[in-house]
């Protein structure tokens, strides 16, 4: 049975990276569009799959999984030899991916999420931007990105010279900020800019941004 992806069709956030990983791994899937404006993610049927009532969710032949980063890890492991290898073959290589992924979740994403809330979500809802939060989040992000620039001066990607899930997870929220004019990822350092441009230029990502998430992807 083909894997089912429950998501909105826009390739953003965790849904976007899950669709990206499925494309990189060349895994066919059926998109089940969740109409969040109709609260389809809060129905009893949906909550039985995802008790927090969020997208994305996958159903792989009866195996149900939610949380974007967890979902990405699953096809990367299950289809290790298919499509782009997103995890290294050695235990040490995978440990380095977990190290970089942990920094993404603990240091990078929280600052990006605060900026996203203040600079994207709040203005859209007609709420004022809290400049104190913005300044603080930019300072936090800046500290992380300075270290990234040093790391990326010694290796191509965040977990070594291979493109891995640790790089992929950075696509969850940062591209949206860039589209709102916060271009810190391309201005903070040359190694950082080189890495980020490479990540956002992946063919599967470019196609997803152009076409949205579709059941029958063009890859
Ligand atoms: N940590 C979750 C976040 C998922 C998430 O925030 N999904 C949003 C859409 S991008 C959602 O479903 N929001 C509806 C809600 O929280 O009620 C993940 O990575 O999957």
TrEMBL record:
<feature type="domain" description="GST N-terminal">
    <location>
        <begin position="1"/>
        <end position="83"/>
    </location>
</feature>
<dbReference type="InterPro" id="IPR004046">
    <property type="entry name" value="GST_C"/>
</dbReference>
<dbReference type="InterPro" id="IPR036249">
    <property type="entry name" value="Thioredoxin-like_sf"/>
</dbReference>
<dbReference type="Pfam" id="PF00043">
    <property type="entry name" value="GST_C"/>
</dbReference>
<protein>
    <recommendedName>
        <fullName>glutathione transferase</fullName>
        <ecNumber>2.5.1.18</ecNumber>
    </recommendedName>
</protein>
<dbReference type="GO" id="GO:0005737">
    <property type="term" value="C:cytoplasm"/>
</dbReference>
<dbReference type="Pfam" id="PF13409">
    <property type="entry name" value="GST_N_2"/>
</dbReference>
<dbReference type="InterPro" id="IPR004045">
    <property type="entry name" value="Glutathione_S-Trfase_N"/>
</dbReference>
<dbReference type="GO" id="GO:0043295">
    <property type="term" value="F:glutathione binding"/>
</dbReference>
<dbReference type="InterPro" id="IPR036282">
    <property type="entry name" value="Glutathione-S-Trfase_C_sf"/>
</dbReference>
<feature type="domain" description="GST C-terminal">
    <location>
        <begin position="90"/>
        <end position="218"/>
    </location>
</feature>
<keyword id="KW-0808">Transferase</keyword>
<dbReference type="InterPro" id="IPR040079">
    <property type="entry name" value="Glutathione_S-Trfase"/>
</dbReference>
<dbReference type="GO" id="GO:0006749">
    <property type="term" value="P:glutathione metabolic process"/>
</dbReference>
<dbReference type="InterPro" id="IPR010987">
    <property type="entry name" value="Glutathione-S-Trfase_C-like"/>
</dbReference>
<dbReference type="GO" id="GO:0004364">
    <property type="term" value="F:glutathione transferase activity"/>
</dbReference>
């Amino acid at each position: 049975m083909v894997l089912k992806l429950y998501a909105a069709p826009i390739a953003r956030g965790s849904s976007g990276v899950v669709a990206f990983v499925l494309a990189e791994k060349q895994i066919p899937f059926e998109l089940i569009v969740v109409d969040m404006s109709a609260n389809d993610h809060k129905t009893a049927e949906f909550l039985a799959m995802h008790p927090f009532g969020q997208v994305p969710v996958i159903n792989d032949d009866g195996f149900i999984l939610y949380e974007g980063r967890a979902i990405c890890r699953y096809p990367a492991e299950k289809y290790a030899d298919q499509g782009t290898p997103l995890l290294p073959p050695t235990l040490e290589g995978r440990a380095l991916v977990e190290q970089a992924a942990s920094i993404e979740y603990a240091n990078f994403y929280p600052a990006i999420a605060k900026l996203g809330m203040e600079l994207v979500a709040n203005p859209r809802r007609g709420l004022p931007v809290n400049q104190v939060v913005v300044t603080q989040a930019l300072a936090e992000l800046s500290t992380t990105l300075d270290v990234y620039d040093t790391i990326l001066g010694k290796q191509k990607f965040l977990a070594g010279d291979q493109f891995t899930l640790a790089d992929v997870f950075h696509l969850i929220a940062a591209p949206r900020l860039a589209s709102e004019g916060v271009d810190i990822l391309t201005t903070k350092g040359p190694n950082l800019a080189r890495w980020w441009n490479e990540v956002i230029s992946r063919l599967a990502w470019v196609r997803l941004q152009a076409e949205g998430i579709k059941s029958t992807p063009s890859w």
